[in-house]
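Technical annex, item 7. During the second reporting period the consortium partners agreed on a shared format for inverse folding records so that results from different sites could be compared directly. Each record opens with the tokenized structure and is followed by the designed sequence. A conforming record, contributed by the partner at site C, is shown below for reference.
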């Protein structure tokens, strides 16, 4: 059962309140702070207080991590946000532009993986019945290592 609750009108949150509302462990918040991804102020009793907009930063960090984006890249784009005020819609739009093409490419690759994993992926195993037709004599191995058909987004034939 919950022991803390972040009031809707609270301007700041304790580490426990922020952790509960963000759905992360308090240790994750301390780690994000050590890594320079979020900031807090300290009370006279040396307790952390986070501004409410830190919730959005934590959500952004978590979503980015789920996509496999390294913390260094997350830190880099978060550094574009202002420290002295709550980020605006325009601030977040500027941040999102940093990854738009990378995310579009990741989406394309994930769709390709989803749609083609049951077919020949050009890995050289030749174990699926269509591999011999799609990759005779492992010709795709001449292009390099790995699953050649999943190495880059598919392009329509003739391009």
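Designed sequence (site C submission):
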């Amino acid at each position: 059962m919950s022991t803390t609750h972040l009031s809707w009108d609270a301007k700041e949150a304790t580490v426990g309140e922020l952790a509960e509302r963000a759905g992360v462990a308090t240790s994750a918040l301390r780690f994000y702070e050590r890594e320079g991804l979020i900031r807090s102020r300290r009370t006279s009793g040396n307790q952390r207080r986070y501004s409410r907009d830190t919730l959005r930063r934590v959500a952004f960090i978590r979503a980015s991590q789920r996509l496999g984006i390294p913390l260094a890249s997350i830190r880099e784009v978060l550094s574009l946000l202002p420290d002295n005020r709550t980020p605006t819609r325009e601030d977040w739009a500027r941040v999102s532009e940093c990854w738009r093409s990378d995310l579009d490419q990741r989406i394309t690759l994930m769709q390709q993986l989803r749609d083609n994993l049951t077919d020949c992926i050009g890995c050289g195993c030749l174990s699926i019945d269509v591999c011999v037709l799609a990759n005779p004599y492992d010709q795709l191995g001449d292009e390099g290592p790995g699953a050649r058909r999943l190495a880059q987004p598919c392009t329509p034939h003739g391009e």
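The helical segments are 15-22, 26-34, 54-66, 71-78, 89-116, 131-134. The beta strands are 12-13, 41-42, 48-51. All partners now use this format for quarterly exchanges.
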